[in-house]
Amino acid sequence: QVQLVESGGGLVQPGGSLRLSCAASGRTFSVYTMAWFRQAPGKEREFVAGIRWSAATIYYADSVKGRFTISNDNAKKMLYLQMNSLKPEDTAVYYCAVAPYWPANVGASDEYRYWGHGTQVTVSS
């Protein structure tokens, strides 16, 4: 089992920034791909960004490209999401997820085996 705990969410004004963190513990040797997903009220969970644990490969959803940056710290078993130029449509619960391999479709939520409980991000004036 891999346990994931997200933090860093909150309320921010449009144009502002937040940095989300995800701490991984447990059988972290099985972590190969980590990703951020989000789910807004009444909408399906959607892919935000994914990173191979070696950081050799990174993918972003088109909606966040150029505004969000995913990164990791192998030694600390941490995953981060720096979110800049936030928009009201970025409002959602953000989830950290882990897959024990590099998925053929990194944006497919059913490829991920472990999930955190999420952290709320609200972008509003």
Q: How would you describe what is shown here?
A:
The N and C termini lie far apart (40 Å). The model has no long low-confidence stretch (mean pLDDT 94). The protein is globular and about 40 Å long. The protein is 0% helix and 50% strand. The protein has 125 residues and is mostly beta strands.
Structure summary:
The protein is built from no helices and 11 strands.
What attributes does this structure have?
mainly beta, 0% helix, 125 residues, 11 strands
Largest sheet: 7 strands, mixed
Order of H and E elements: EEEEEEEEEEE
**Unreliable parts:** none
Distance between the termini: 40 Å
Helix segment count?
A: 0
- The total beta strand count reads 11
Topology:
Layout: E1 2-7, E2 10-12, E3 18-26, E4 33-39, E5 46-52, E6 58-60, E7 68-73, E8 78-83, E9 92-99, E10 114-115, E11 119-123
Parallel strand pairs: 2-11
Antiparallel strand pairs: 1-3, 3-8, 4-5, 4-9, 5-6, 7-8, 9-10, 9-11
